[in-house]
Amino acid sequence: MGEGFSLADVDPSSTPGFDGDKQQGRVELDAGVPALSELQERLFAASTQGAPEAVLLVLQAMDTAGKGGIVKHVVGSVDPQGVHHHAFKKPTEEERSHDFLWRVEPHLPKPGQIGVFDRSHYEDVLIGRVRQLAEPDEIERRYGAINDFEAGIVASGTRIVKVMLQISADEQKERLADRLARPDKHWKYNPGDVDERELWPAYQDAYQVAFERTSTEAAPWFVVPADRKWYARIAVQRLLLDALEDIDPQWPAADYDIAVEQARLAAS
Asked: Once rounded to an integer, what is the mean pLDDT over residues 81-90?
């Protein structure tokens, strides 16, 4: 995210960097699975020999923007043994008795894992700001605390990929209506989503401020247009591939004599 970025300038229905249609997007997503799967396996394998690298995918968005689809269709295409997924809900009474980052650290990915935060520590500067759940000075403090926290995570070997899925208000309305029209989707509907829609401009402002305060060199933000679910999925897949390709995890060398083991196996 470059200097002067404005969320208001993002067209949620656009497909930057991809000229194809939905069908071609599905082909593109399928084509990326083997590379993502191999890189994730290499990341996990390297960790068994002490490599410290991991990847943390942070997903933020307004409701219905497609976070679940990203988890299912992108992250779900790799070996689940190497994935740690956590969805942050409303803080419990115990969590509220600690600093807002206290509940986050236990869910960070271990070496070799791809971690996914379906909502995250950013709720405390988004909902916290919009709903005035904390004083303005405390919200400002949290931006700095997040930057320090993420810098420490990156220094330990974890790549952070922070993604905001930008959906339009009109598209969200259609998706909510679809949930109400289909019995198999009633469980996904939350009456509170309409309450949050009424605060749409305030949330857009809160996201803008969060980007300005917390898009750093160590952990930059990526805003992905999300009105077209298929596009958002290939965009996030590409971001994960870029992170893993940059890490370039290597298969660990055998710590035994291969020829000797081949001979022993043949004689067994």
From this structure: 94
**CB of 27 within 8 A of CB of 87?**
no
What are the tens digits of pLDDT across the range 236-258? 999 999 999 999 999 999 999 99
> What's 19's DSSP letter?
-
Q: Classify residue 56 as exposed, middle or buried by CB count within 10 Å of its CB (0-12, 13-18, 19+).
A: buried
Evaluate whether 171 touches 12 at the Cβ level (below 8 Å): yes
Crossing angle of the two packed helices 200-214 and 136-155, in degrees rounded to 10: 50
Radius of gyration (C-alpha) of the chain in whole angstroms? 21
**What's the mean pLDDT in 51-80?**
96
Q: What is the dihedral of CA 241, 245, 247, 251, to 10 degrees?
A: 110
Pair type for strands 54-61 and 83-87: unpaired
pLDDT tens column, 116-166: 999 999 999 999 999 999 999 999 999 999 999 999 999 999 999 999 999
Residue listed under structure tokens 């930008």: 166
Question: Is the Cβ–Cβ distance between 204 and 8 less than 8 Å?
Answer: yes
When pLDDT is cut at 50, 70 and 90, the band that residue 177 belongs to is very high
The whole-angstrom distance between residue 254's C-alpha and the CA centroid of its chain comes to 33
Q: What is the pairing mode between strands 158-166 and 221-225? A: parallel
Q: Is 235 strand, coil or helix? A: helix
CA distances (Å), origin 65, targets 72, 122, 210, 250: 14, 16, 18, 35
Q: Cβ of 45: how many Cβ atoms within 10 Å?
A: 16
Can you list the domains of the chain with their CATH numbers? 7-267 (3.40.50.300)
Rounded to whole angstroms, the Cα distance separating 19 from 14 reads 10
